[in-house]
Amino acid sequence: MKENIIAGLDIGSTAVRLVIGHRKGGGSKESLQIIGAVSVPSEGINRGAVKSIEDVTSSISACLEKAERLVGLPVETVWVSINSPHIKCEKSRGVVAVGRSDGEINQDDVERALEAARAMSVPPNYEILHVIPVKFTVDSQEDIKDPIGMTGIRLEVETLVIQGLSSQIKNLTKAIFRTGLDIEDLVSSPLAAAEAVIGTKQKELGAALVNIGASTTSLAVFEEGELLHTAVIPIGSEHITADIAIGLRCPINLAERIKNEYGCVRPEQINKKDEIDISNLAKEENAEGELSTVSRRYLAEIIEARVEEIFNKVDNEFKSIERSGMLPGGVFLIGGGIRLTDMVEVAKRELKLPVSLGTNINVATVIDKANETEFLNALGLVVWGNEAIAAGGGFSASRTAVNKSIEKVKKWFSSLIP
């Protein structure tokens, strides 16, 4: 049974989350069953970058132990999300001559075209994470989704090349290998989450996923069923907490409690005279004497300013690909930072698009925890892994570079073990 286990590992700034799925045969989403979801607080990582390999390893080990106790099966390999502000997204083209004498295009031709697209100049400190085909051209016929079986002489592919900082990739993989786990692949965080949240129709029309985490906000934009753009913005919900701590002059732990329990994003809906009694919270957080009452409207004004900034930066990313206000499939919000009251309304106002809270629509699960907004990233990794396995180790063209890097780290790490 353990051969059919697929695990998605999401290492965030505040928590390490692991979702475990079981393949019951076949590659469809219907054949995938979620059997466990666990999380533990994370240490040693901030804004997607490893600050202490030892701390990250300890957090992953604790999460792994908890998961194995829950499902009663060993977890040996994982699909891992990478979520760093240093991720870059560029377009590249590859052109090849069709190999067969009768001109019929096969999988080898597609692989060669993707390899040709990969041969772009990458900065020495970056590595290619994914080479994602956007559209193909056969001879002069453009906008082809799947050229296999077609006839032509010249095959051209337009791809989206996602690159990550080499040092961050190596540090992350090193921390995971220390726990005894093997890595199937590293997947850009919003790409993975979209697998669980966005439907096929929305991807065709044009839709975006926005994941507001603790210290980063990541996004992925889809159109005509393909990825159009991805980016990571170095602002998250921790910055809202820090603003509250400064605005109310209170300790950070108390600011976090105030945000979670009384936070609202629309001050215009609150009476100026509304006050919040936070004396009990202050007592629980050992901050007596700091504050007893807070203006609810002032709190909302602090939160609104930072939330508006986050969505303005998201809209700037949409503008960079000329899709601002032009995604009829809508924007799906996920992550731990979206729990504030009226977050969706502010997003609609700032982005001028249909906005909704993202939910799991693609995988059946009886584990309620796996459907929580914080777990959608890890859940998407399981779906991504399931589809890759169903495609016979698919995505091979997009995986070779990062797998080479993973193999190097694995060999280096093995050489240290006596």
Describe it.
With 418 residues, the protein is α+β, with helices and mostly antiparallel strands. It has 4 domains: 2-84 and 166-196 and 363-416, Nucleotidyltransferase, domain 5, CATH 3.30.420.40; 88-165, 2-Layer Sandwich (Dna Ligase, domain 1), CATH 3.30.1490.110; 207-235 and 307-357, 2-Layer Sandwich (Nucleotidyltransferase, domain 5); 237-305, ATPase, nucleotide binding domain (Nucleotidyltransferase, domain 5). The protein is built from 12 helices and 18 strands. The protein has helices at 53-71, 107-118, 166-177, 189-197, 200-205, 237-248, 252-262, 279-284, 296-320, 343-351, 376-390, 396-416, and strands at 5-11, 15-23, 32-41, 45-46, 49-50, 77-82, 88-97, 126-138, 141-144, 154-165, 182-188, 207-212, 217-223, 226-233, 275-277, 293-295, 330-334, 355-357. The strands form 5 sheets. Strands 3-2-1-6-11 form a 5-stranded mixed beta sheet, sandwiched between helices. A 5-stranded mixed beta sheet has the order 14-13-12-17-18, sandwiched between helices. Strands 7-10-8-9 form a 4-stranded antiparallel beta sheet. β2 (15-23) and β3 (32-41) form a beta hairpin. It starts with a strand and ends with a helix. Keywords: Cell cycle, Cell division, Cell membrane, Membrane. Self-interacts. Interacts with FtsZ. Cell division protein that is involved in the assembly of the Z ring. May serve as a membrane anchor for the Z ring.
